[in-house]
Design a protein that fits this description.
The chain is mostly helical. It has 19 helices and six strands. The chain folds into three domains: 120 residues, no CATH class; 100 residues, Orthogonal Bundle (Arc Repressor Mutant, subunit A); 103 residues, no CATH class.
């Protein structure tokens, strides 16, 4: 595996990218400096202060670093393809390879291993003790429940929880929010205001458009406990699995052969697809169709399983309904009449007569607003060039995330 050293990696970024990366990792760089000076400063910072910049990462990135360090330098770890990439992968601070359609390969170079290995466990423990990761989980949870929130409302929700849970030291909370890349990376600004969105949201404008069409203006209230549950387990979030519908879905997936990580992924994919049920959405039932025992189900069992998926989809908070669900509003209910008569073995396979293609290699600016927004914070890090919910460019008729995007980061 041919590696680029850290200095060469940083030198490949544009000037504004270096400024944004420094901002996210806690090292504000002056825009007056030449690019070569920015490279040198950021390179020195990453080598000299690993504990500081690692403490500015999201929990998912710190845990990924820890996993790679424990495996050892240049030791490939095999992972599934998440809905959104980690900051470490996007920036190239850890190495990855998507050439194998079955696995997402990730590893850490010897240079980066030597930088982070002495401190990564300490950073993980420190962020847990300080409550930084807990703040992130609650914040992510509210965003996963609502999809997108005005920044002011998001901060108010987190502050309300923080006051009750930790005594209301708002200076401490402000420091955590300023330090967390959650607010820095998933910001969205237009002429109507400033927002924070879930990292799982790919098309903010679509959510706004559908909320307007359905006249959805009022946000459903959620407890901090519900938010904490909805924000745990990044990047494979699962929503509503303590509800009767969620528990029935998990029991059903276990009966059809899912266990361990594959069970978690099936639950996550079902939640994601359940956000898109304005029209008939066959992909909602794809985890059921892909289950190890789907071909063994008789007709009655198949329809019962479909009903369980449908009931769950109608019970979870929907982004376009401002957190309300389809059962409460009567809107956006799961439409599955085509599955009443479709047997698992009769599901049409995706035709292979389409041109194979690969996505352009993502960079730190792909889909990224390079201008700095509110208080000098970058506006976002949306990486994919094709949204997972968009039709696949190959013309199969499936969503991109269920076709060629299934095996691409």
């Amino acid at each position: 595996m041919k590696e680029r050293n850290l200095h060469t990696l940083l030198d490949g970024f544009q000037k504004v990218e270096l400024e944004d990366l420094g901002n996210i990792l806690g090292n504000e760089l002056s825009p007056r400096l030449r690019k070569s000076q920015l490279v040198e400063q950021l390179h020195t910072y990453l080598h000299a202060q690993p504990r500081r910049w690692m403490s500015h990462l999201m929990e998912r990135d710190v845990r990924l670093l820890r996993e790679l360090v424990h495996a050892g330098p240049d030791k490939v770890q095999y992972q599934d393809f998440a809905d959104y990439p980690s900051l470490l992968e996007v920036t190239g601070l850890v190495q990855y390879d998507d050439s194998d359609e079955n696995f997402h390969k990730v590893w850490i170079s010897r240079e980066m291993y030597d930088i982070v290995a002495p401190d990564v466990d300490k950073v993980l423990r420190s962020c847990e003790r300080s409550g930084q990761f807990e703040v992130e989980r609650v914040g992510l949870g509210f965003l996963n429940l609502y999809g997108i929130l005005p920044t002011e409302r998001f901060v108010d929700l987190v502050m309300d929880w923080f006051e009750q849970a930790r005594g209301g030291d708002f200076r401490e909370l402000s420091k955590m929010l300023h330090q967390s890349p959650l607010v820095k990376m998933y910001r969205y600004t237009d002429e109507w205001g400033d927002y924070v969105c879930s990292p799982c949201v790919e098309n903010v404008e679509e959510i706004f458009t559908q909320r307007k069409e359905l006249d959805q203006k009022h946000f459903k209230p959620f407890t901090a406990a519900e938010a904490r549950e909805a924000g745990a387990g990044a990047p494979y979030f699962t929503i509503g699995f303590k509800t009767p519908e969620g528990m029935r879905l998990e029991q059903m997936y276990r009966r059809v052969g899912y266990t361990g990580y594959e069970l978690v992924k099936a639950q996550h994919d079902t939640w994601m697809e359940a956000q898109y049920t304005l029209e008939q959405n066959d992909a909602l039932f794809q985890p059921l169709l892909d289950s190890p025992m789907s071909a063994d189900l008789d007709e009655d069992s198949w329809l019962t399983c479909c009903q369980i998926v449908s009931d769950y989809a109608d019970s979870i908070p929907k982004w376009i309904l401002c957190g309300y669900n389809a059962a409460e509003t009567g809107l956006c209910k799961a439409d599955w009449p085509a599955w009443h008569t479709r047997r698992p073995e009769e599901a049409a396979p995706v035709a292979e007569e389409y041109p194979h293609w690969t996505m352009p290699e993502p960079t730190i600016t792909a889909g990224f607003a390079s201008d700095l927004g509110y208080d000098g914070i970058p506006l976002g890090f949306a990486i994919p060039h094709v949204a997972p919910t968009d039709p696949c460019p190959c013309g199969s008729g499936l969503r991109y995330c269920n076709c060629h995007g299934k095996y691409l980061s």
